[in-house]
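Q: Is it fine to ask for two folds in a single conversation?
A: Yes, each is treated on its own. Send the first.
Q: Here.
A: Result:
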Amino acid sequence: MVAIQLGQTEFHHEQLDAHRAGTVASVHSWELVTAVDGPGTRLTYFLSGCLLRCQYCHNPDTWKMRDGALTPIDDVLARIRRYRPVFTATGGGLTLSGGEPLMQPAFVARVFAECHELGVHTTLDTSGYLGASASDELLDHTDLVLLDVKSGRPDTYREVTGRELAPTIAFGDRLRARGTNVWVRFVLVPGLTDAVDNVDAVAEIVARWPNVSRVEVLPFHQMGEDKWNRLAIPYPLHRVQPPDAALQERVREQFRAHGLTTF
């Protein structure tokens, strides 16, 4: 029995070492999509693990890193090479999403560096909450950041995510200083994120960043509720309806009023 326990412990340490080195990742899933997670056709990997608990999260099954499949980096790189002709033809590339990919920064850094060796465009989809975990080397190999600015008022951000707004702003400021191309995403939830002062606060933050080339207002939807139910997690937005066209346009106009290209 002792020998078996020791073996399991050694194996666990090997896994941890591989994670720290970025040679494996905990992966929830992957998909090939067009014009969703960045320009062109994207190979998007959803990594497991996230510290935020967004009320509208449509992938709560990505919250825990231990629930993902351990995937060697060589497997990911082989798939990237397979789709290089598609990326070249469409102006696409690789997107690392989640969960929160910066829960596994060593893996992100390794994959993005390899992508640049291959001439493949890289996109990081992140809340920015763990932006301090992104090394300069990682960001050197990041062509585009999809930055989720979930609210502009600190109290609303805390209500939405359970976490603080300040780290996201700090990461956005860092990306501005580097001149990294950013697309900001804002999820519009009636009764939660749609208050005029909250939207204005988001717009005021984003307007400070001239490296933001577009803002995407994403209407809330209920497609994640079934996952919450399957995981036996109480879903806080059960009766909330998607925003109507008038509300969506009002919010987009608030961003445009700050000089931001908005979709």
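Q: Second one now.
A: Result:
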Amino acid sequence: MAGARQAQQWLLTLLPAFPVLLLVLRLWQLSHQDMSTMLLLVQYVSPLGLLSALLIALVWAFPVVVLAFGVLGRLLRLSAPDRFDPERSLLASGTARTPGWVISAAVALGALTWQLRFLPSLLMLALWLLALRTRYLHPDQPTRVLLVSLALPVAAAVLAYSVLGPAIWTAYQDREWATAALLAVPPAATVLLTGPIPGWIAPALTHGLAFTVATVLPVVMGAVFLRVPLLPTAAIEVVPRESARTSPAATPATDDGAPAEGSGAGPSPAAADPEVVLGALIAVTDTSTIVLDRAATVRFVPNGWVESQVLCPQVTSVPYSLVSVRGWPVEETALDWMMPRKPVADPDVRCEGRLPGAR
């Protein structure tokens, strides 16, 4: 009893620290391990923007956690009921306290946020959960159990292969082995784990897999989030201008127009050439525009030097796979597929680091 409660207390204590750790590591990486730059980013970067980027980048992880631990917990409860102790096992405790609507919400969220190539795995996990739950709640209804644990997975597999068949063959021909496996294996595997496994191996197998998921998933989440942009990319056209101290109006002069002796002012220096500063826009203060350029150097551009600026779109990643299912690329999510496409426009030359009109 004390073991499970102690583990839950530690989990609830450390869980809020994980997003904070990810945010700090992302800022540390963005600053190229320079403490002064990192402190500047912490001062100006919006916490709401950081949390929004974190949520959008890692929203897919919630269905992974709920469904993976749900399958393992229900498999343990069905295979070794004498070892299913919610007071001593954190896996058993989470399974016993997770309501059905949370699992349904996780399936719906996964259907929207997972890439197409992972949807067969989502179907497999959902059917496993349904079959294990039905066997546990209705052991005295063999017809119902047979329909859910055998007929439904077979029908789902036939339907999946009828839709995914051409994509699987295309992936095989293009030697995209990972894509072919993700599309072909899960529909057939739906009939493998719809019932109990030998009780002597169930506790070690389920707890071992749960520990593996709990160890690997944070590493994957961190690797994904460290590639997410946190600041908008902007191209700023900078035209250096003379300051008031070096302008002729501010310099004392003699009758012939030469600078007065002892004034400490000589001929004004030649103005620098115009340029385009391309980088992450940190903030715009009353006096300057703060930009983190491509060389990870913080530049304070006086606002009087800013001729124009434009917001540059984020660089889209090059697709790894050319396989699609009825026109739906396997690397796109359902949300990407349903949302309207942004109209293609000619890129602004300033986003390429060139001045307007330059060749």
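Q: Anything structural to flag on that second result?
A: Two points. Residues 244-270 have pLDDT under 50 and may be disordered. Residues 142-173 form the longest helix (32 residues).
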